[in-house]
Amino acid sequence: MNNVLENRAWRYATKKFDAGKKVSDEDLETILEATRLSASSYGLQPYHVFVITNQELKEKLRPYSWNQSQITDASHILVFANTTDFGEELIEGYVQNLSETRNVPLENLKDYADFMKSNLLDLPVDIKNNWTARQVYIALGNVMQAASELKIDTCPMEGFQADEYNKILGLTEKNLNTTVVLPIGYRSDEDETQHYPKVRKSKEELFTHI
């Protein structure tokens, strides 16, 4: 089995973290850079990631996370929050960045900016919210794979009260909403689920070659 598949086979949704083991600053930066480099529609990255290490804050979030121990025992908690609504500022900010990064005059990018605006700005708010949330999951997949390559454990979690996370982290006033939470760290020897065979559909059931 090659490394790509070995890393995916090694990864599992860690149920119990070793609270005494911490992710190094170097490895954390690698994981965050993998997040930053993730693909997104149009490259707009309509989300923000909060990196939580403060133990008091973790304890505050745990009751609103179905009291799951991963929240308090993991080394870090990554809270992915999607932009709930947006206007021209999202596209114009991206185009400005594109111009500066690739040394392209802004006027040369006007048609592309107008194309994005025509496709996105008139969408209803609920559709925008749904679309930006889907972008989060692209980044989430990249982060989980990057972590597995470093032999760092993760547990993607949707079992939490988003409204309470939003209050505690002050997200609503920032036009953000908690989409998914990702504890990262190292599995505890006591976590029996690490020994369970991975249950997935067979290739014959999952894939159709046309």
From TrEMBL:
What are the protein's GO molecular function terms?
Answer: oxidoreductase activity
**What are the entry keywords?**
Flavoprotein, FMN, NADP, Oxidoreductase
Q: Which domain of life is it from?
A: Bacteria
Q: Which residues form the Nitroreductase domain?
A: 9-186
Cofactor(s) named in the record: FMN
Q: Which residues form a coiled coil?
A: none
Give the matching Pfam families. Nitroreductase
UniProt lists the family membership as follows: Belongs to the nitroreductase family.
Listed PANTHER family: NAD(P)H NITROREDUCTASE YDGI-RELATED (PTHR43673), NITROREDUCTASE (PTHR43673:SF2)
Q: What is this protein called?
A: NAD(P)H-dependent oxidoreductase
